[in-house]
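Lab manual, section 2.4: Encoding a predicted structure.

Procedure: take the sequence of the chain (271 residues), apply the prediction step described in section 2.3, and record the output as structure tokens. A sample record is shown.
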Amino acid sequence: MSVHSEIKRITVNTLLKMKASGEKISMLTAYDYSMARIVDEAGVDVILVGDSASNVMAGHETTLPITLDQMIYHAQSVIRAVKRALVVVDLPFGSYQGNSRIALESAVRIMKESGAHAVKMEGGEEIRESVIRILSAGIPVMGHLGLVPQSIYKFGTYTVRAKDEDEANRLRSDAKLLESLGCFGIVLEKIPAKLATEVSQNLEIPTIGIGAGGGCDGQVLVLHDLLGLTKDFQPRFLRRYLNLFDEVKGAISHYVADVKSKDFPNEKEQY
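Recorded output:
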């Protein structure tokens, strides 16, 4: 029996069972083959090919500029590396809002051209038609409520969402709506922990939190933030597990110095 046949793939169904049994779900972003391979081998349950690639891979200030073609490229790279995790791909800004036919075409392209397992989209009531259409094509959909970065210009800020009762009630009903439409999970971003816990307990489907406290059914972080490759971004919810910016910089500076001093390559490092 080969090693690979022993690896049990995570599916949408696995996540529902994990929630039912109380096992927390780990989710991380990845955007390229090399990193996705490490993330998968480390045992992460869900890999999100996030539109955060717009920030951490391309250097844009927001997630808005990244295109569907670029998201597909990142998804293809990740899929080639992954043997176990469920791979979810963000539908980028402009590829699903306001037109359910375009939304379906976008989701179909992601699934066909990358081989990913599911798509994620931001919003509740306002994307109802798009969610219905994508699900009717047999494509699993993950929701995203709370802070929705693609709407940054509407809100004008990245502060905590749903603190007032009106917005909290809308989030509650949007979460129930997404579940009733058939979404397999929902990301809850930057909302009060108490609200996130309540919403999680009222849903059969799993919630994945980012800055939404420990009451969610799982957690997600951006890989580059967790590894300390990004330096400037320091929200309260982020735990840095490494400080790779300084470590990598140190290694490269060392290399530069060795080249300048003619220490590299040495006798053993040539033919």
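Check your result against the sample. The first helix runs from residue 3 to 6.
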